## 1
Amino acid sequence: MEILRVELGNRSYPILIGQGLLGERALFEQHLPARDLLVVSNTVVAPLYLGQLESSLRPRRVLTTILPDGESHKTLANVARVLDVLVANRFGRDCAVVALGGGVVGDMAGFAAATYQRGVAFVQVPTTLLAQVDSSVGGKTGVNHPGGKNLIGAFHQPVAVVADTRTLATLPPRELRAGLAEVIKYGLICDAGFFAWLEANIEALMAGDGTALAHVIRRSCEIKSAIVGRDEREQGDRALLNLGHTFGHAIESATRYTEWLHGEAVGAGLVMAARMSCESGLLASEELERVIRLVARTGLPTHVANVGPEAALEHMRIDKKVQAGRIRLVLLRGIGTAFVTADYAEAFLRRTLAAHLG
Amino acid sequence: MEILRVELGNRSYPILIGQGLLGERALFEQHLPARDLLVVSNTVVAPLYLGQLESSLRPRRVLTTILPDGESHKTLANVARVLDVLVANRFGRDCAVVALGGGVVGDMAGFAAATYQRGVAFVQVPTTLLAQVDSSVGGKTGVNHPGGKNLIGAFHQPVAVVADTRTLATLPPRELRAGLAEVIKYGLICDAGFFAWLEANIEALMAGDGTALAHVIRRSCEIKSAIVGRDEREQGDRALLNLGHTFGHAIESATRYTEWLHGEAVGAGLVMAARMSCESGLLASEELERVIRLVARTGLPTHVANVGPEAALEHMRIDKKVQAGRIRLVLLRGIGTAFVTADYAEAFLRRTLAAHLG
């Protein structure tokens, strides 16, 4: 088992990464002191892993709430269902919520934990690559609104993240690829060496090679926890983690969260961020080609036909990254060097959208 | 105008208290830098003060949402309405929410601000005595759940509190009395001199004497901001502010928030906390009598006939103050000296409930 720490003063917490952690009762006893626990999972993950997790959590009181699977179900109504269960069972402020599943489950369980009695403990047990490398770390919780992605939510840090890499064995290939989009993102924003390593090892990763996957999970969590430790509430550096996400959120919103996985939309978004950087004269065209090639080799979309450029622009305007009416974007000066800006020519943005959408 | 400060590091903010502040445009320009503003008010307060506030906020973009009046409307569904307006009008993360009204409006507007885009600025403009002395200060936001009071919410500090004492002129006497319950609470928890001053001046306060009201608003905000500055998230001292509230919340919940104002329930709750302290041998019976007398002179209930002791106990068990299954209570060692405990005889609690309920 490897242990990383997210350093946030009295809200610091460990990220535990290893094979078979779901079955380690001592680990949950150590990191989760609550006696009343609500495990939130979904209809796909629960049949696979809920039994094992429950027996690791007993003999404490363990209740479960199973939500429908998929980003289109990440709604305030489903969070209200979790809150209803907590109230109905008279859980006190000293209870804990455990998220067992991917990013959607983690975001909703975390938001319920953030708002129940103004905040109770929660533990992330991510079972997808995307959740293990990204969404389970950093305390962003929330739900979608018909008007836009993640528009309702809270910052609420978990007390621990338990990433059992064995759960990736049952992950559908499409979900694995979606997770790799976020991994590629880390290389692009701050680690050119890691990006090159991904170029050399992408086939092994897609084949589910355990050693290669363990490496990308650790390196991704290292990068993310360092950034979150510097800037918990996204006043500065943390915004770099949104590379590709403003484009990606627009794709998700425009297709009502039903057509593309978050990671797939991010994959296309990374290509668009690189294209826009190239159009703006910041990124060399060879580097743009490397980005497109790696995203394509990962089996992620580089072109999204079912969203038009105008529709995407509409959705980008309600994204959280809008400030003083300007859409803020993360762009690249090179592979491994990202920055945030609202100072760009609208024409480059339109040309970028036209090149990869519709 | 008087200015107090709530000291919370980079989340510190001023409390501005004075006559006619609603009309002072310069003050809102200074303390509220956002260009997009959503004013949340209710059907009673809006006709009286919304026009004046709006003209003080212009020429910025000012939208309004008018919610129904009353504690029974403090629901997640109404917060969702506020969020819908923010999304529909494409408000960015740099917008602000302004709460114009009493505690119910402040709690809901604050919770919407806490959760919109994971937190936007908000300003409290309290128009009731209860909101000016208590609920607008300290960052507790949230809504009720059918299962219990304030069970869903967040800590989210305002960027400023603007208390225009002139708004108290239109406050119904019943609302004025409800606010005085919280004022009496401050004397009981930490200021015996203030409690004695209230005994000497309660008639002037109930008659709406401006000087007397200004004094209690300032002193109440001083006490509350000092406690919140020491313990923002209620890990310790802040729990003292809940004196009478566990009893009061049970009365409110048991009557579905329709029979008693929050302050009225707190009035009865203060008497019950004092009774329980006396039963436990902590508080002299003369001091209990002083508490009962002052609450009664204020026109607040000392006995609540339409809630039975058993029903109240049921509702107390789901209150946020329950820890490890024990109901934590704030009790008195004397007027001006309160403490939190879960170590008391259940018989005293039952005797207390029987004496003042049913």
## 2
Amino acid sequence: MTGFKEFPSYKRLEELAKSPLDLTADGALSPERISQYVASAEGLRLLYATEKVTDDVLKALEGLAGEARVFEKMKNMQSGAVVNQIEGFPSEERKVLHTATRDIFDDPQDSPSASEAAALAKREVDKLEAFLPGVEGRFNDLVMIGIGGSDLGPRANYLALQYLQKAGRRVHFISNVDPDDAAGVFEEINLERCLVGVVSKSGTTLETLSNEALVRRRFEVAGLDSNHHFIAITGEGSPMDNPERYLESFYIWDWIGGRYSSTSMVGAVMIAFAYGFETFIEWLKGAHAMDRVALIPKLEGNLPLLGALLGIWNHNFLGYTTNGVMPYSQALIRFPAHLQQLDMESNGKRVDKQGKKVEFKTGPIIWGEPGTNSQHSFFQLLHQGTEVVPLEFIGFKECQYGQDLLVEGTTSQEKLLSNLFAQSIALATGKRSDNPNRYFPGNRPSRLLLAKQLTPYTLGAILSYFEHKTAFQGFIWNINSFDQEGVQLGKVLAKRLIEQFKGKREEGAPEEYPLGEAYLRQLDEV
Amino acid sequence: MTGFKEFPSYKRLEELAKSPLDLTADGALSPERISQYVASAEGLRLLYATEKVTDDVLKALEGLAGEARVFEKMKNMQSGAVVNQIEGFPSEERKVLHTATRDIFDDPQDSPSASEAAALAKREVDKLEAFLPGVEGRFNDLVMIGIGGSDLGPRANYLALQYLQKAGRRVHFISNVDPDDAAGVFEEINLERCLVGVVSKSGTTLETLSNEALVRRRFEVAGLDSNHHFIAITGEGSPMDNPERYLESFYIWDWIGGRYSSTSMVGAVMIAFAYGFETFIEWLKGAHAMDRVALIPKLEGNLPLLGALLGIWNHNFLGYTTNGVMPYSQALIRFPAHLQQLDMESNGKRVDKQGKKVEFKTGPIIWGEPGTNSQHSFFQLLHQGTEVVPLEFIGFKECQYGQDLLVEGTTSQEKLLSNLFAQSIALATGKRSDNPNRYFPGNRPSRLLLAKQLTPYTLGAILSYFEHKTAFQGFIWNINSFDQEGVQLGKVLAKRLIEQFKGKREEGAPEEYPLGEAYLRQLDEV
């Protein structure tokens, strides 16, 4: 297996990175460049004139993709090959088939593995469709209990579509083991009309089970039978797959990783409850359409691959350690938090697929907040600080609610877009000034994912775009983007500390753990 | 003026950074170290055994603080000297007296400048106290319209104290010029019982005025006189200081920067409305107490200075480009977003106070999410990724609502704390493994700000801790932490784009702006 740094195109890109395009040079950012450096698919347009790339760089990046065999790898993944693995070492050894959860429309994958997964997914979609009428008139609130991928993706997608909220329906999320999380949510809920969805693939997640216990007690205190209010979203046969305790079980499988689970029942039940079954299906269709785009076996037209390659250029060749995601849409307020998990948990790795320590940078730090808010916050540093942050902007031509107003000749949406475009230009071109404190160095790269409106279909396509962008980067780096061994040590140590707390209460003698005891002693001092 | 890199202690630290403490070495992280590397003030304990510091490093850092004259600079700031300035160039030339907004208790600053400011601040506090009874029984919802410092700090503080919410009181925030922001907020509000607070020091902020217009129209459409529902939080004599359009004007002054304005009327009106006047005063008292701590003229006991120096060690000497803030408290969910503005807008600078381009790194990128959620998200990268991120944890011994439950022998709060302590240990010590994918390199620094409970007083102290930590870092780097010239270029270009939109609608002929036109043409393609 040839490694990332051994590809011929790697050397070429390293060479090109010695004198990258200077966006502040006279005429470097021209109207022609803005209209030429555009790619589009499924209603999304990726504008990348403000990246520090030339045609030479793009050609070399395409070469890199070919040398890393990303087209074959993407096809393998979507066909149901066991791609979640480390060769020669014990690892998860799983398929990666989140795409199957939306492969229920035209032109499905024909491999037996993918077909079987899609059939299972379709069965759950049908189950959900049959379940929903029973909810009508009975439940107003849905409280989702889950953490990590069972929380961040669903929450980001829920918030993105609130303009479609069905009357009398609300969704709430409890994730943190912090007991104040659950307490805060229930301040305003009528328990009699409350449905609770508990999400855990294994049925054993510490935070989720603790919160489920907290919430079930709340029902009992209110004299209600919690078993008539709870549904499970879990693996078939898990400890939570129990009809006596849950009205219904919706299934997920080991081929759906938490951070890739939004379009499985993990996100589906909640989206369909809040916004209706048709909205849910539109959202799936958008994601499915972008899955197909990711299979295009060349750079042209393959939007997620282009995004992945531009990111690698910035991170590995130009040396920028973080990647900002700035949606100019209040509805996408928690989308950066979802992308943090999706990207950083997938690609924050130190060994390659053969278990060899990598000698280059893998996944960057992802962070961001919506614009224009972020302009009034940390954009000072982005324009004049000593760290350069490549940005991924996301924007829409039209707003969602359609409640806008002309003030001084323009709508708020137009002001929003004006700010968005202005930031791209300002970061790229900078500005000379005799006052050194009013000097803008510019030459700071960004790109923009632009669409007509944030509809369910578009949201699905954006979600899938980022999933495949992440996977493509992992393919190029030859790392396993689908496991998360790095979270295990914290779990093990947390268990030892929990034993300390337990021992203290029970006046027993827990296992000796001096470091843990030292921390517990600090609690006596506050 | 001696620059950062010319200080004798800089050379010493540079030398020490060549072989920093290895936290993975046998016995490096000991129970003794955990109890020794602790500092405390006003109920906050800073545990920093898991930072890569030795007594030598701490001594050199203290030397650096002395050479940079930070004690004198902090005293000057709190006394009302004109510290917001760049020498020899046009600049804001302002005092920086956010501390005066809470200097209304014992032992006030005695300089005329600070006394005068505190007297003005006290007048507004009294005005607020007199205003509140009139709100009783008349208003249930308060909608705050503001952006940047008028949004992020207040919102973070509001969310942090929701357990104290007065019955029938809710606060909402509209910030983004995205018209969907306002539309979403008003889905569930009874306008007749709604008070609206508009925040803009200048009375001219684009986003805020656009949102005010949107919201006023909503009242008019409902047949209500908006002038009876609006209050202004603005500079005295600004265009918004108009009793015909606002029930009341609460004043702020040019010596309160947006990101430092939480404890001024910008945050005060909203906190007092939601949680009562007494809670507001407790919060001020906590902030005031930490202001006093920041004035301690030595490192010992000066908690914000210690935080600042540890950050500089990590950023400038160990070379880490970002700084993660991870509160193990769901109530602090938006505190990292506030700190992004506070820190990055303050210290994301490229010239020193004499206008000379700096030759070192100024402010890091600040980012983070609450634990334990973040553990299930991006902590994979923190443990095993190729970027090292120094972390600032925040934790509390007790929860806020007191609604907790023993599950398998421990409470949720104990599980939360177990995870928090476990992460500190895991990041520091790492773990050997024959499976390279289960190998944890460790040696990743963190520290922990620990307190008994997140009360109003503690929240005020934490807020002030971070304000002064930021200021101290700016003092050491000799930069102006109180202006934000870097946001101006974007504003100028946005205005040109707004003119393009206007011109298109009015079929007039706006100023020629080819780059802007090129972006507008892209909108026709989506």
## 3
Amino acid sequence: METIINENQRRIEVCVSPNLFPVYFKNKDCIVVVIDIFRATSAICTAFENGVKGIIPVLTIEEARKYQDTGMLAAAERSGEIVEGFDIGNSPFSYMKPEMKGKEVVLTTTNGTKAINYAKDASEVVIGSFLNLKAICDYLEKKDKDVILLCSGWKDRFNLEDTLFAGAVVYHLKKNERFIGLSDSSIAASCLYDQAKGDLNEFLKNSSHRNRLARLNLEKDIEYCLQENIIELVPILKGNTLKVEV
Amino acid sequence: METIINENQRRIEVCVSPNLFPVYFKNKDCIVVVIDIFRATSAICTAFENGVKGIIPVLTIEEARKYQDTGMLAAAERSGEIVEGFDIGNSPFSYMKPEMKGKEVVLTTTNGTKAINYAKDASEVVIGSFLNLKAICDYLEKKDKDVILLCSGWKDRFNLEDTLFAGAVVYHLKKNERFIGLSDSSIAASCLYDQAKGDLNEFLKNSSHRNRLARLNLEKDIEYCLQENIIELVPILKGNTLKVEV
């Protein structure tokens, strides 16, 4: 992007796959919003809403097992299903159980925890989902930095639901004249959200991951993850652990 | 993508950046349509329409110079401008000159020739632009193979005009029941084209490369490149040279 931006304006870039992150990550003094709507980032927001104290995102199942061996609650998902030997995957409903309140959890997922790892050198990494859309937008406006909306995608592919959420953030932030530096991917994502916003589930009816989850009988998860603004907090990466400010 | 496809159905994938090509290029027995609307693939189509015999796409300015030293016509563009020492860049109007008729041309551009190089191991590589949109769609229907629509982007970023053209191809092919395997990126691109098709130039008014070209006084090129179906041929890569079937 070579849009002429003055120093009072902030860029919003949408990175549609973790593979493209190095192409967009030129200014480290930015906030990266990690997005994995179905279901890692929706589950993370839900966990904090239900009193989980911290979440340690790790890349591999082996790392998750090591934490599990120390007695920590451990969650692992691959290709939409809970990994053998773990009690929890990335269904948001798993994180609503009262016994998780006040606990730390280690988490590894197919796409989301990989994206968090890509982003870790940014000055801030936060977790976004439709559930905390307004909270994310308010946070980004308050912080007033360049923003990269990092879609986790599906195994490095473009993915419709993550791009739609990125578009939702752009759609709201572009009303603020400071966030005027829209990249082409931001324009596209915002336009898609504008078309989809009346009925996100209907818009996604032919999308690949929605249908993958539907085949696994996870319609309830899909409907839950597509609700806007039912959670008001913003999970932030502090060291190797996701936390919320209290 | 894990959409269930039977053997009589063909996939259409949109790859929004050359960086993502390895992620989509799993079945080599496919046709890759290389897209660089502003302006390499529009210029290539125009060159053949005006009687150019062959175009050798090369990656570097040095390679183009070597061909030039043998007396061949040579074209080189970087960041929208003709490279010093070359007579031609990638403005389609440069390729309408009568003296180019029957000639071979070597060509290197910022994004387009790089994308052609990425695609070269596919069973077929063809060149698409709005100018030959219908010809490309007819060709793909006739060939009946899986299709990857490869957007050249801008320096590996997502780019609006290339994605719109990819969307135009999906928009037309999806009416054919054999092309039912739409990836998420195909759904998104088709949806964007559907919104933009009434006035492509208006839709692109805030896009980065359109504005980059406008600053270089290339409005005439932009308008030319956004015309649909004024050229009926399909340039195809044969060995290291683009040609059209006669």
## 4
Amino acid sequence: MWMAELAARSGYPVPTIKYYLREGLLPPGEATGATRARYDESHVRRLRLIRALTEVAGLRLETVGQVLEDLAVADSWHEAVGSAHTRLAEHDGPPATAESLARADDLLQRQGWDLAPDSPHRTVLARSLDALAALDHPMSDELLDLYAAAMRQVAAHEVDAVRSPDREASAEAAVIGTVLQEPVLLAVRRIAQENASREREG
Amino acid sequence: MWMAELAARSGYPVPTIKYYLREGLLPPGEATGATRARYDESHVRRLRLIRALTEVAGLRLETVGQVLEDLAVADSWHEAVGSAHTRLAEHDGPPATAESLARADDLLQRQGWDLAPDSPHRTVLARSLDALAALDHPMSDELLDLYAAAMRQVAAHEVDAVRSPDREASAEAAVIGTVLQEPVLLAVRRIAQENASREREG
């Protein structure tokens, strides 16, 4: 397809697509002359992934470039999705206490879970536990294990839903799933809480 | 206790406490002279609740005042907690489509759940479903039901954990639980996803 069709298919204006080409976020099309090139489905998919990363996940273009580089060198589907996932996490924040990091590790051990050495999720979890403890509402191990059991079932289904032989499509689905499904889960939690509260009231 | 002790116990500076007294967010103490008054545990608890609502939930003082008014007139523990809960929700946002509102209602019906007429959670849920559909990643009813089943178990435990004969303490725990436990749940979800993804990779 020509540039005009790529613009129509992706919803991006032509100048933006040209900018992404110059920045290397979008691979060049197949040249058919000095100034014309043809594009294919891989370009449409790449633009969808860029949209998911920028508009949905709120990543800066520089970080998007890193995710795309990770994707290119990933050895496996798991690694490709994992790198997109890791870039999404909030790396900035106060350091977690040793106590909360130990509690996170205990949870991982109890659940038989493992994390990549560079995974930010252990720190994010520990930091959240610190915030609760600081307000005199520490979270019990019992509730942590309940969260883990609930999320184990959910995650297995979610991961199956985003698996695809196409790494870019998988990464896009993982990004969208991580970011946009979170508000759904939280809304359902509040609905469940409202109903559990009413039941307890009798 | 005198004002100085209330300040030390609550962690709030005296001028802030005086401001809350003037604004009616904090009930007056028991006057012991023209300019002195004694305060008790109810004042410490009220200041903790104000802290949870402002610093944790990020509510403006005006909204905090509304939550406290709701609390004063609530007929039940469930109503007191529910009103704090409702004030926390994001009421601003694009209107949800009729289609997504119908899907939210279907979920409520399938789960045997009910919501208060002014509950914002139905709209918040529908709006999140719209966002997913707009990016060609509609959420399946199967996954919605899986979220519901998972959150049903979690919510029952959470609601039991915050129940207290003291309404202010319950509301404070509900606010903190809603806002500060969410990042814990989401971190555990990402950890579960990373592990489910590795398992699938084999």
